[in-house]
Amino acid sequence: MRKPVLIVLAVILLAAGAGGGWHWWNVSRFLQSTDDAYVQSDVSLISPKIEGYIKEVRVRDNEAVTAGQVLFVVDDRDFAAKLAQADAAIATQEASVATYATRLSAGGVADEWVTQMLRQGDAQVFKKYSQMKLRMKREALEELNRRANEMPAEKAGDQIGTVSVQ
Q1: Burial of 129 (0-12, 13-18, 19+ CB in 10 A)
Q2: To bridge 52 with a disulfide, which of 74, 115, 160, 161 should be the other Cys (CB 3.0-4.6 Å)?
Q3: Are 65 and 71 in contact (CB under 8 A)?
Q4: DSSP 109
C-alpha cells in the first residue's frame, strides 16, 4: 500500500515541477514586478534602409506585427526632388551630345573644333594622371619615412633618415 502512494506522489510532484517550469519559461520570466504593475515585452529594433521624414504610421502602440508588414511610410518629396534633378542633368547631357553630333555632321570647321577639344581633353587626362602618380609617390615616401622612424636603432644602422619630394 505504501509503495503505490509514493509512486503517485512522485508522479504528481514531477508533473507539478514540469508545469511550473513550463509556466516560468513561457510567462513568468517576462514579468517584472513593481509596486502595482507588471511589464511583458518583446522589443525589436527597427533600422531603416533610407532616411527621411515619417509621413504615416500604420501600426498602433503594442500591436503585434508580422515580417514584411508596412510599419510606416516615408515622405517621398525629397526623393522626388532628387529624381527631378537627376532627370534634368541627364537631359542636359543629352542636349550636349546632340549639339556635338550636329557639329560633327556639319563637317569642315567642326572637324577642327573636335580635334582641338580632343587635344584639350588629352591634356586634362594627362594632368590628372600626373597628379595621381605624384600623390601615390608621396604616399609611398611617407610610408617609408614612417617605417624608418619606427625601426629600432640597432636594426636601422645607417638607414635612419627621411626622404622628401619637391
Answers
A1: exposed
A2: 74
A3: yes
A4: H
Quote the cell numbers at residue 153.
636603432
Lowest-confidence pick of 17-21, 49-53, 86-90, 111-115? 111-115
What is the C-alpha to C-alpha distance for residues 96 and 86, in angstroms, rounded to an integer?
A: 15
pLDDT (0 to 100) of residue 46: 76
Q: Which residues of 96-105 are buried (b: 16+ CB within 10 A; e: fewer)?
A: eeeeeeebee
**Cell triple for 20:** 511550473
Poorest-confidence range of 18-22, 76-80, 118-122, 129-133?
118-122
> What is the rounded CA–CA span in Å between residue 30 and residue 42?
9
Digit-coded pLDDT (tens) for 81-127: 888 899 888 888 888 877 877 766 665 555 666 666 667 777 777 77
Specify which residues 33 forms β-bridges with.
38
